[in-house]
Amino acid sequence: MRHVIALDVGGTGMKAALAGASGDLLHQARRPTGRERGPDAVVEGILDFAAELRAYGEQRFGEPAAAVGVAVPGIVDEARGIAAYAANLGWRDVPLRQLLAQRLGGAPVALGHDVRTGGLAEGRIGAGKGADRFLFVPLGTGIAGAIGIDGRVEAGAHGFAGEIGHIVVRPGGAPCPCGQRGCLERFASAAAVSEAWAAACGDPEADAADCAKAVASGDPNAVRVWQEAVDALADGLVTALTLLDPRILIIGGGLAEAGETLFTPLRDAVRRRVTFQRLPSIVPAALGDTAGCLGAGLLAWDLLDHTDRTEVTR
Hints:
Number of strands: 13
CATH superfamily of the largest domain: ATPase, nucleotide binding domain
Structural class: alpha/beta
Shape: globular
Order of helices and strands: EEEHEEEEHEHEEEHHHHEHEH
Helix content: 40-55%
CATH class of the largest domain: Alpha Beta
Largest sheet: 5 strands, mixed
CATH topology of the largest domain: Nucleotidyltransferase, domain 5
CATH architecture of the largest domain: 2-Layer Sandwich
Low-confidence stretches: 309-314
């Protein structure tokens, strides 16, 4: 059976799958990224994991994987197949596409940014399926975005497209590691809400999920912390929709797990801010933590489709 290898590399763990042509996951596996062992060990772990998946697929399906799709965090040069920089993994300028192709006997390899890859899956087979324009925004430790256009995700001229978390929403506000002050992710990420709620309730172990539960129970301090985050998020999203005019806003990540505790006030806050703009649908992501893996599989199949078309036209 023709299949591809899909790898989603995170800061702490790697999710992998063998994916069929229809996008279904035929086999799934996970393992730690092992970043505590250093960047070289992380790269070697990725290569070993891919080789094991190739061997498993060959044994189970009678043929090796036709291609490989890999999603990684940080700055990614997708055109050259280079993982340029990832602070949480400690690597710089890793020629990951070349290294994987060498380890896997010359198999074609597609490399993508983790959020854009997850957005690709959400746009094609998840919450944005059928939409010609969408914006996918996962709210996790930080905030990023994926701009979907007609079934693909825009990387930008230099690989930075979609970095909505670094829109300044509170000028002069909290400093951000990016060098600016007042960035969206300093106020509306799951990490930011956790920090604000821990300070407000006096429990250093409290997190964003605890804040959401307190909001649901009517705690006024929690409502204040939550609303401040929602207002900041709405400001950033309205800036994005003014520039991009998406048909659908897909909100994912840990903070979206709060459900309507997040979505009801967020929809209201965005609605209050729009003037001439068309209000998009604001919906939760559908694929959860499988989005990256599913998107990596789609990258691999896209690569094969492109190769097949090129062969036909020669």
